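Take a specimen:
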Amino acid sequence: MPAHKEKNSEEQNHKNIQNDTQASQVQWGRAWEVDWFSLASILFLLMFAPLIVYYFIMSCDQYQCSLTDPLIDLLMGNKHLSDIWNKTPTLTYTAAGIYIIWVAFQVILYMFVPDFCHKFLPGYVGGVQEGAVTPAGVVNKYEINGLQAWIITHVLWFANAYYFHWFSPTIIFDNWIPLLWCANILGYVVSTFAMIKGYLFPTNAKDCKFTGNFFYDYMMGIEFNPRIGEWFDFKLFFNGRPGIVAWTLINLSYAAKQQELYGQVTNSMILVNVLQGIYVLDFFWNEAWYLKTIDICHDHFGWYLGWGDCVWLPYLYTLQGLYLVYHPVQLSTASAIGVLMLGLIGYYIFRTTNHQKDLFRRTNGNCRIWGKKPEYIECSYMSVDGTKYYSKLMTSGFWGWARHFNYIGDLMGSLAYCLACGFEHILPYFYIIYMTILLTHRCIRDEHRCFSKYGKDWKLYTAAVPYRLIPGVF
């Protein structure tokens, strides 16, 4: 993709952002120019992603999680859109209060409670950590305290459930749709603020990108690492908190509702809580590692991350638990063991592949993978300020099988969540369908950016590891 060349007036308006940079430098990160397919995709998501979330949640609330019955009702004339909308719970003061307290509490834990977990948990990396080099050559520092925030939040949750009784453990489920409106408001507010900030007072002007297309810039973001003050980083906060901390609380609320309605918690609900809880805990245990992933290293902060983390993640990633409230499934012992094993094997692959890469990075290749010194391709890249950096891309272990083999573990875990729900409805299987599309697209998107970043060195790497995802297939 050719380098974007701004006009003089644009250079003045954008504070001479990215002046006199080489093509290889300005291509690193998200796109400078927008093709028609990308624009069409952006417009589709901006228009329909909020409707998709609403449709799934409404289907459970009004149609017992059937995705076809609402359409049949509308097509047969049994109901009008206004009938469905009028039955939808509206924003309430209760939900607004819950959401404001929730987000404010997570901000306090993020900003004002320095991490102490790394002082007594062996192997855990927390406290102040450095991120990857940005395209402008900046190395940001982060306060890694997500595990601590998760622990404090859940200790308080269980203390309330079993001792204080300030609120019902079903409070999230009972206010689920009113909370949806709150989440949408925050998602749009933070995304709009991030765009305005990128134009008027960016944290680092050299790490901003402008395509000239309003919709693309709004969705994919202008600023690379928007911050307020020294420590409040939009990407780290919204990627991890409040959505992922809430993930396990949401599932616990679903389990509490199942107990309230049916007098028991099914083994399928327990499986969903355990398997997704493992994933969430893994995320926070390895939050420092997360600083080196595509979300932090390549994505700019816009609606895609802002709204997505506030709405898409907590509402659609928890569909299995929501479904099991309406359709309690008690699996046979063999089926439950099978689902558990699938999820655990998937997690093992996911964690082992990522551990191999992390170990390789931390030791600069001076380690052993599967009992041998790892092989690698050495690459170079340039930042905007003209500084040359070097990276090593490992071609050993699972990373010698496929360039994104860690996603196989992700997909196995995602399938396990869905299989726990049985086969009566397709709604809980949205997650595995979505993750397959997302991770396949991410493979392609990540590799396009890596090629832009590393150039001919990336070709050497793909020659050494020819498969993207599935060895021998893709």
